[in-house]
Amino acid sequence: MGRAVTWIVWITVGSEFLASVVANNGFGPGKQHWGYSGVRPRAYIFWWLHQAHTQRPETRPLIIWLQGGPGASSSGYGNFEEIGPLDRTLKPRENSWVKDYNVLFVDSPVGSGFSYVEDRSLLARNTTTVVSDLIAFLKHFYHTMSAITMNDWEGSVPLYIASESYGGRIAVEFAYALAHAVQGGTIRCNLRGLFLGSPWLSPVDSIAAWPQYLAGLGFVDEGGRERIERKVAAVRDTVRQSERPGLSMEGWHGLQQTIVQETGGINCYNVLKPSRKEIQPHDVESDEVLVYGETLWWYSDTGPPPPESHTSSNPLEQLMRGPVSHTLGIAATKRPPWGTQRTAVFDALGDDFLQSSVGTVQRLLNETDLELVVYSGQLDLIACLPGTRGWMDRLFAHSPASLSRPSRAASSRGTGRGTRIASRTTRFCGPGTWYRPTILPPCYTFCTVTLGGHR
């Protein structure tokens, strides 16, 4: 895929001295830059920039892509499974976002993908740490790229933050902190808006919608619905009243097990895909099951995988730990292989996983002029559409008149439907799931139309 050219760039941010390994001539088509940024002592974020496939990429907006999980990898899942220039089989992706925009894949939180910590005690345990790491990274990225390209990435390039699932929660918290950092003069940034794909912003609303969602689609009978509802109520109570760390996650895993039992192992990322009982044993860890298993759903009744497994059990892992790692020059280092700290990332954020960030969405709307676009796939169970509608309807029912106005439909060229539900907020739903590429092309078109002026 081409020989990598590598620099060591030293940057001082405040009183902290950071090192980044930066390279280009990467894996696949187009101009690329990638590297590691030290965001805290012994904690490193990996980033991978694909510049727009246009004559003047410096004139195109920059989109930061944040994956879900927590623990899933932007450099892997987001890049090769969803929006990057190549798919997992290394075929060109027709609807790649890189055709029109600069896309920056960030493996966050530290420990996701190629990002890593040297000691597990350094993993983030709340969104506050995740966000502070991202801001430290972004400062470093801007300094690094400006030094390499001689372009003013901070001041002249519009920035959007795109995300899916749990990444949506990080996106809104990151955007809010970033907006205040800009106001406070601690960073220069041209932040314009957010794309939130099936966002895990109000977990209690999402899980509360599961029983009726599954019953309405015929996956459970009345008895199954009632048993799931009892588990949901237990989780809701522990989230609101928990005094013991880990209690909420115990309830979460219990809810997962109940749904697996009642549905025969439904594919929670696309309910029309084969259930667990329909999958052959040798396929349980294959691409279709674990590529989107952000929250280790498929292990909920068998236990998690061994913590430091370096073996590649599915095609994406084989690609990332093999050709990609070698081409980017990572394999030759002593850094952990791609994805080996993923389970630890989720475990570390367990007490934070079921908390809500709807209040931060409200503050973004009240205190900033950012544009928000929310995507939802109709076949996604985890952040199901009824749950998303629940918190959004409640949010705008209590919003100031300046934020709320009559809905109007917006076209997405025949494959989905968008509604402008407030002055700077658009909701889009499509006949698919955010975790599969089927919904991404119409969402991409829809976001381009909604945000306007940059394509």
From TrEMBL:
Region Disordered, residue ranges: 403-423
InterPro entries: AB_hydrolase_fold, Peptidase_S10, Ser_caboxypep_ser_AS
Source taxon at top rank: Eukaryota
Residues that span the membrane, as ranges: none
Enzyme Commission number(s) from the entry: 3.4.16.-
A molecular-function term among this protein's GO annotations: serine-type carboxypeptidase activity
Listed name of the protein: Carboxypeptidase
Protein's organism: Anopheles gambiae
